[in-house]
């Protein structure tokens, strides 16, 4: 791109979904309340943190515990629709990004069908929903047994390599004409750490695992409590 050519997109905003865009983590909620329970999930979580388990293997065990207890996918989604709330600043952030032609792209280790259902429930405006692009894992449903299991997006130890997704998006013709140094990523957990390698500014949610990891590994980040903080920071940079 020539130096005097204005980029089509002033920035790109990438974000995790569960616990970042939403106030609750839908996968943790399902596991704790319908699946193996909180204590068992914490054992797996500790394994992820100490390296004895990959995120991919642990997360599959968590979600499988829900299906194994006889909860079909549609009932799980119904439960989440009743309990998951949106970050109070997210909708305003999407509205502003829409007006500025800044793509909003969800990069999640969760389930695409769940995210789409929650998005439709939490953001009623079709033009805002359609503006948000979703990259997440899929679900395989066995209609004969009414059971389901996660179908990972790739073969990485995370099941969805967010770093690779961000790199793929930023070279796609649809998004490649964006301002240099303006790839933003928002996250809260272990699965978000790979995204830090391909973003220019990392927003990490206060009090969550991503902040702890960033401190331990010396990764630069900006702490946030809600998307209102993220929006205020981005406005200063655009």
Write the layout of secondary structure elements.
Layout: E1 12-15, H1 26-34, H2 38-50, H3 55-68, H4 73-83, H5 90-100, E2 104-111, H6 112-122, H7 126-131, E3 132-142, E4 147-151, H8 162-171, E5 183-187, E6 201-205, H9 209-217, E7 222-224, H10 227-237
Parallel strand pairs: 1-2, 1-5, 2-3, 5-6, 6-7
Antiparallel strand pairs: 3-4
GO molecular function: phosphatase activity
InterPro entries: HAD-like_hydrolase_phosphatase (IPR050849), HAD-like_sf (IPR036412), HAD_hydro_PyrdxlP_Pase-like (IPR006384), HAD_sf (IPR023214)
Keywords: Hydrolase
Explain what this protein looks like in three dimensions.
The structure is a single chain. By secondary structure, this protein is of the alpha/beta class. It has a domain at 11-25 and 86-235: 3-Layer(aba) Sandwich (Rossmann fold), CATH 3.40.50.1000. Helix content is 44%, strand content 17%. It has a seven-stranded mixed beta sheet, sandwiched between helices. Helix 2 (38-50) packs antiparallel against helix 3 (55-68). The two termini are 18 Å apart. The model has no long low-confidence stretch (mean pLDDT 95). Keywords: Hydrolase.
Note the run of SSEs as H and E.
EHHHHHEHHEEHEEHEH
CATH architecture of the domain at 11-25 and 86-235: 3-Layer(aba) Sandwich
Structural Rg: 18 Å
CATH topology-level fold name of the domain at 11-25 and 86-235: Rossmann fold
Major β-sheet, in short?
7 strands, mixed
Please give the count of helices.
Answer: 10
Query: How much of the polypeptide forms β-strand, as a percent range?
Result: 15-25%
Q: Average pLDDT value?
A: 95
The helix-and-strand class reads alpha/beta
Strand order of the largest sheet: 4-3-2-1-5-6-7
Q: What is the H level of CATH, i.e. the homologous superfamily of the domain at 11-25 and 86-235?
A: HAD superfamily/HAD-like
């Amino acid at each position: 791109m020539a130096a005097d050519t204005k980029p089509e997109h002033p920035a790109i905003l990438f974000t995790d979904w569960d616990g970042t865009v939403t106030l609750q983590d839908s996968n943790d909620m399902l596991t704790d309340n319908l699946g193996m329970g909180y204590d068992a999930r914490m054992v797996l979580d500790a394994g992820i943190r100490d390296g004895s388990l990959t995120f991919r293997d642990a997360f599959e065990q968590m979600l499988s515990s829900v299906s194994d207890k006889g909860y079909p996918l549609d009932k799980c989604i119904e439960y989440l629709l009743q309990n998951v709330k949106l970050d109070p600043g997210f909708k305003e952030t999407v509205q502003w990004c829409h007006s500025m032609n800044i793509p909003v792209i969800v990069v999640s280790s969760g389930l695409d069908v769940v995210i789409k259902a929650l998005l439709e429930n939490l953001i009623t405006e079709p033009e805002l929903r359609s503006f948000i692009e979703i990259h997440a894992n899929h679900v395989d449903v066995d209609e004969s047994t009414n059971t389901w299991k996660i179908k990972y997006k790739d073969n990485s130890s995370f099941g969805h390599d967010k770093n690779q997704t961000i790199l793929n998006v930023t070279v796609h013709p649809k998004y490649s004409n964006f301002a240099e140094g303006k790839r933003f990523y928002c996250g809260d957990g272990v699965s978000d750490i790979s995204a830090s390698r391909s973003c220019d500014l990392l927003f990490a949610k206060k009090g969550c695992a991503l902040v702890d990891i960033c401190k331990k590994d010396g990764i630069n980040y900006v702490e946030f409590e809600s998307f209102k903080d993220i929006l205020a920071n981005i406005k200063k940079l655009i």
